[in-house]
Amino acid sequence: MTIVIGIDPDVDKSGIAQLDNELKEMQVSALPFPLLCAYLQKEKTSAEQSGKSIIVLIEAGWLNHSNWHLTRGMTIQKAAQIGNATGRNHETGRKIAEMCHYFGIPYKLIKPLKKMWKGADGKITAEEFTRITGCKSRTNQEMRDAGLIAYFYK
Predict the structure, then answer these.
(1) What distance in Å separates the CA atoms of residue 6 and residue 149, rounded to the nearest whole number?
(2) Partners of 27 in the beta sheet?
(3) N or C, where is the chain less crowded by C-beta within 10 Å?
């Protein structure tokens, strides 16, 4: 694929990373759902006009066998909050996939990558992300997760 777009779904703003394999260049951003849909349409049109191929990779945490994040001493209310937030993010991912299907954009659902980095809970740090991808933009965790999905896609 010439253009690989990785997405880490989030209720407020999903992390997006666009990797151009010809230019070896990555751009990252975070967009709310309506703007993300417009972005995907625009990128599909742009790819078609320039004769490039495109694929969208959507992080699909619901493909994991387990999503338990309970810790010792966690209250029922806190567990319910986490479950609600996780479910909302998963539904955002499903809706992104639905919109890709509707727009005719090739997409794949990707299991979350293993957390093996130096950051808290094994998440990748900004420094690690820059060193691996070469992307020098300021990033948040959703952007970095989307970037890793795009970068490591085979």
Answers:
(1) 5
(2) 18
(3) C
Which CATH code of 1.10.10, 3.30.1150, 3.30.750, 3.30.420 fits the domain covering 3-151? 3.30.420
Taking only the tens place, the pLDDT of each residue in 69-102 is: 677 888 888 888 888 888 888 999 999 999 999 9
CA-based nearest residue to 7, from 119, 92, 121: 92
Q: By C-alpha distance, which of 64, 62, 122, 118 is closest to 91?
A: 62
Total-model pTM: 0.90
Question: Hey, what amino acid is at 59?
Answer: E
Nearest to 149 by CA among 119, 109, 122, 116: 109
Q: Where are the alpha helices (DSSP H) in the chain?
A: 33-50, 76-103, 126-133, 141-151
CA 100 – CA 12 distance, rounded (Å): 19
